[in-house]
Amino acid sequence: MQENTPPPGGPPEEQPEAAPADSAYTQWYEVKKGDTLWKIAKEVYGDGSLYPDIFKANQDQLSDPDKIKVGQKLRIP
Fold it and tell me: Are 72 and 31 within 8 A, CB to CB?
């Protein structure tokens, strides 16, 4: 006798959709006084020149990579 078992994860309509920038691998960083995207990239990636990656992941809240504010929560892809 065969059992009817649902597919792993349940039916597709039950799975929440995540925004492309918000995956299980997304980290968050809260901007502190004196931070720049370069400093954050250097701290997180070990290479400040990767700051455009952080900027691109946060274009919904940043219009200029030089204008970040203390307390902002930035996605770190």
Answer: yes
